[in-house]
Amino acid sequence: MTIDGWRITGQSQIDSYVGENAELAVLMVNTLVVTHAHGRRVEPPATGEERRAALAVVRPSAARLDLADADTLAAAAAVLRSLFARDARLSALNDLLIRHAAVPNLHGDPPRLAFHRLEASLGDAWIAQAGTALAMIIGVGQGRRLGSCEAGGCDLVFVDTTRNASRRFCGLSCQNRAKATAYRARRGST
């Protein structure tokens, strides 16, 4: 099994394969869909060229994407976004997996497990891999580990790998902003 509770602490272990592809889903959502990050409005890239360039900044292999694939990734990222927001549309994820032919197979030398056809475009491969990783996390009862930042003005998503699945913020800057806001609210009410 890919995700398994450890025998003594019960902490879930996400293996590197699922973790790598779940982070791909995070990258796609945060780069192509999010409109607020760290308390500021951000404009998601609007064209295939802008999307490819934005993805290439954080994942150099994105430079090989064709423009249609970049647009397809943006549409898929919108579907994946719902899984992190806890309003999981599992039927939409299932449809996405079917549409992009997420099928387990081995290819490469040495053989590596993949969830896309060998001849799949880079965009379809990324969607199949990311969608399958999220489906595996949800399918073993760990969907609560898919989170969205709780700080005001931030829509960034993350995969919670903490021991007790208690992560609430995308990073330290949002955590500090939220704590400062709560402190000012308490100080103002006394």
Q: Can you describe this structure?
A:
It is a single chain. It contains six helices and eight strands, in the order ββαββαααββαββα. A two-stranded antiparallel ribbon has the order 1-2. Strands 3-4 form a two-stranded antiparallel sheet. The protein has one domain (3-189): Jann2411-like fold, CATH 1.10.3300.10. A hairpin with a 6-residue loop joins β1 and β2. α3 runs parallel beside α5. The longest helix has 18 residues, at 67-84. It is globular, with a radius of gyration of 18 Å. It has helices at 16-32, 48-58, 67-84, 90-99, 122-139, 172-189; strands spanning 3-5, 12-14, 36-37, 40-41, 105-107, 112-114, 146-148, 157-159. By secondary structure, the protein is mainly alpha-helical.
Q: What class do helices, strands and sheet pairing give?
A: mainly alpha
Structural Rg: 18 Å
**What is the number of beta strands?**
8
- N-to-C series of helices and strands: EEHEEHHHEEHEEH
Reported for the largest beta sheet, the result is: 2 strands, antiparallel
The helical percent reads 40-55%
